[in-house]
């Protein structure tokens, strides 16, 4: 892939945690707050998962990136401080993990600013952003550049970071791509009537598929970015498997295990090409005609 990793490094890996807690449920159904058990399933993240994950990161002496929605920061005022005090990065993940699909730039700007204000109240000054559900709009890069963000980590079109500019704003930011195969939601998430298929995978399987990806990225000089949610991966056997995974990834020769902020800063310093991504659209004449009622 020929990415200019720092001297002595041949690939990079970042372990990221989206501390969605209650926000991702309430954004879609504010009335779900009446469901005490469902709220407790989400609260497991900040209450039990984050402390356990912080302990394992301390044992491994690895720094990670925590994406914290503003609502989570407001609900658990000590959480952000605890994460920052352990030397980790805190980044932006919306205010209430708002659904971003199809919203206009003004509304999205409001969500962004609300999230920034909440993190600011908690004492964090994020340089990175990850869209809730990784849902970016074509106007999002401009909004992020305008607010001085150094990077985003929500797009799915690369194995290594790249510099990205928007449509109007001068300046650019770094994009650090992600992928659904490297997200614990697909492996572990299940709550009746809220999310998941009902299949909960073994942490052994998750460890195996994620390590395979890390090894392949390492062989090709890529950037491995894993996304975990403390309310899922903070549970004991999953956290134990994650601890083994981080140790295994770190043992790969020349693997740079660090925060997304560090990767973004390095990319901004060493990559000169700045990409602009044009919206892909179907010309009117190729838009399929609506079909009639099915025959029979
Ligand atoms: Zn999230």
Automatic annotation (TrEMBL):
It holds the Pfam family Polysacc_deac_1. Signal peptide: none annotated. InterPro entries: Glyco_hydro/deAcase_b/a-brl, NODB_dom, PgdA-like. Gene3D superfamilies: Glycoside hydrolase/deacetylase. Residues 35-258 form the NodB homology domain. This is Polysaccharide deacetylase. It comes from Streptomyces cavernicola.
